[in-house]
Amino acid sequence: MYKIETHLHTTYISHCGWLGAQAIIKAYAAAGYAAICVTDHYNRECFDYAEIDLTTPGSKTEDFLLGYRRLKREAERYGIRVYEGAELRFDESDNDYLLYGFHHALLADPDAVMRGGLERFVPAYRADGALLVQAHPFRKKCSPAPAAWLDGIEVLNLNPRHDSRNDLALEYAQANRLIMTSGSDCHRPGDEAKGGILSDTLPEDSFAFAQLLRSGKYSLIKP
């Protein structure tokens, strides 16, 4: 069985992330993980922190994926696969959404994406073929989005500093027949390798990883 992390942040883009590429990869290699999906925060605070100017022309996706690229380079020494992901927050609320299997054009204009809100983003991400999973929907200041706008729910968020009320997330996912995921929500030392999924197959890339989640052919890593 392959261990795969679904929810992880780096210090390069996420202002709340403390860990660099070497520390992350060493910890996950020691814990026996075969792959990691980097889901750095895609919100205004983090773009400011990373000094990504949203007012200039051109796609911002490559700048946003700095953490992914650094982890990918470091991971080559350990034989760990690294997938592209993102944790989106729109201007309208404090909700967070994990995005998997997207093409770069989908996130090229962060200002438009964040101003547009979730409802406007739904047809765009579905036309792109991406997968959207709401992270920790019952955490303080968060609320579950309409199930019809989502593909899945993070039913096990294992960050030790938050009460994500995972029991309510599980109930919501089951009631609405949504994809279910588990994730470490790794930010700091001690957060590593708490959650994720177990799979008999190891996806080749980010798009295959999203397809694995759609298939349901995996189990959740639990505490």
TrEMBL record:
Q: Signal sequence: where?
A: none
Would you tell me the protein name for this molecule?
PHP domain-containing protein
Q: What is the lineage of its organism?
A: Bacteria, Bacillati, Bacillota, Clostridia, Eubacteriales
Origin superkingdom: Bacteria
For molecular function, the Gene Ontology terms on record are: 5'-3' DNA exonuclease activity; 5'-3' RNA exonuclease activity
- PANTHER family linked to this entry: EXONUCLEASE, POLYMERASE_HISTIDINOL PHOSPHATASE N-TERMINAL DOMAIN-CONTAINING PROTEIN
Q: Which organism is it from?
A: Butyricicoccus pullicaecorum 1.2
The PHP domain sits at: 6-125
